[in-house]
Amino acid sequence: MNRFFSLLWILALTQIVVPQGIHAQEPKPLIFELNKKLGKGINLGNALGAPNEGAWG
């Protein structure tokens, strides 16, 4: 029982000491804003494919 109260006391102290700002999250930017930052590029999706079916295992 004494161990339970000790654990409860430690938990209560950590809730007081830890600033509440840690738990706050910044708002996420819109996907369109991220897309503007990304810029232009090329798609290399199938550039590294095998020349023939099953050629690379």
Q: Tags for this entry?
A:
42% helix; mainly alpha; 57 residues
Q: Number of DSSP helices?
A: 2
Number of strands: 0
Overall shape: elongated
State the secondary-structure class: mainly alpha
Mean pLDDT: 75
**Gap from first CA to last CA:** 63 Å
Oligomer: single chain
Largest sheet, if any?
none
Q: What fraction of residues sit in β-strands?
A: under 5%
The helix/strand order is HH
The helix content, as a percent range, equals: 40-55%
Q: Rg to the nearest angstrom? A: 27 Å
Describe what this molecule looks like in 3D:
- With 57 residues, this protein is mostly helical.
- It is built from two helices and no strands.
- It has helices at 2-17, 31-38.
- 0% of the residues are buried.
Secondary-structure topology with pairs:
Elements: H1 2-17, H2 31-38
Can you give me a brief rundown of this structure?
With about 55 residues, the protein is mainly α.
